[in-house]
């Protein structure tokens, strides 16, 4: 009886871990068609909307990821975070 319960528990744990790993991978990787709405939200709080949208869309097309929120959280998207300008500043908003 104890073995059957532990097998069920282990099976449920494995399924939970698989589900969590899928959610994590879906959160980071976008389809190119998802870039426009994500960048619109990302750039919604800035007063420089055109340049923000231009660079956000460019970064999203390259990285297939846009950080959540209107500012910060770049650690969620390493490609987006690490892409720099020639001067060494951040390329992605």
What's the SSE blueprint?
Blueprint: H1 2-28, H2 35-42, H3 49-63, H4 78-82
Helix pairs in contact: 2-3
Could you characterize what this model shows?
This protein is mainly α and 93 residues long. It has 2 domains: 1-29; 31-93, no CATH class. It contains 4 helices and no strands. The chain has helices at 2-28, 35-42, 49-63, 78-82. The longest helix has 27 residues, at 2-28. It is elongated, with a radius of gyration of 19 Å. It starts with a helix and ends in an 11-residue tail after the last helix. The model is unreliable at 20-27 (pLDDT under 50). Keywords: Signal. This is Protein RSI-1. Pfam families: GASA (PF02704). Belongs to the GASA family. InterPro entries: GASA.
Fraction of helical residues? 55-70%
Largest sheet: none
Please give the alpha-carbon distance between the first and last residues. Answer: 56 Å
Unreliable sequence segments: 20-27
Overall tally of domains:
2
Which geometry do the CA atoms define? elongated
Rounded to the nearest angstrom, the radius of gyration is 19 Å
Number of strands: 0
Q: What labels describe this entry?
A:
93 residues, 2 domains, mainly alpha, 59% helix, 4 helices
Short description:
The chain contains four helices and no strands. Helix 2 packs across helix 3.
